[in-house]
């Protein structure tokens, strides 16, 4: 299960929040309010994220433009599947997970499994 470090996660948040590919300078600027990072540090993190498969890049003149290789939701789903794979009893882990869900989350899951054809109701707890 691939996980992101703190700085990698911050950089990925920038990529996930942008519709268009971004440069290392764009990421550095986006993180400037939260962190005091050197441009070269951001370049290194983006290179590492690309090698790990979290980001893709394309050449734009002399610069690289980066984008997330998968959505935030796909990443979280992969983490959840990895955690599930670590248990000795997947059924028990799924039961505990299901019991911790809100009614709204359970309804979303039922619809995703094709068990519930009702439209989503915002008023569910």
Automatic annotation (TrEMBL):
Keywords: DNA-binding, Transcription, Transcription regulation. SUPFAM superfamilies: Winged helix' DNA-binding domain (SSF46785). The keyword Oxidoreductase does not apply. GO terms for biological process: negative regulation of DNA-templated transcription. InterPro entries: BlaI_family, WH-like_DNA-bd_sf, WH_DNA-bd_sf. One of its GO terms (molecular function) is DNA binding. It comes from the Bacteria. The keyword Transcription regulation applies. Belongs to the BlaI transcriptional regulatory family. This is CopY family transcriptional regulator.
């Amino acid at each position: 299960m691939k996980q992101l470090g703190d700085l990698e996660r911050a950089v990925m948040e920038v990529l996930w929040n942008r519709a268009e590919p971004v440069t290392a300078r764009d990421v550095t600027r986006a993180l400037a309010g939260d962190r005091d990072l050197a441009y070269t540090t951001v370049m290194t993190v983006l290179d590492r994220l690309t090698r790990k498969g979290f980001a893709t890049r394309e050449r734009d003149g002399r610069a690289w433009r980066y984008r997330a290789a998968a959505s935030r939701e796909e990443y979280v789903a992969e983490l959840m599947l990895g955690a599930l794979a670590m248990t000795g009893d997947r059924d028990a882990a799924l039961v505990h997970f299901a019991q911790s869900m809100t009614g709204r989350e359970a309804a979303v899951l039922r619809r995703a499994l094709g068990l519930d054809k009702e439209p989503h109701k915002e008023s569910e707890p």
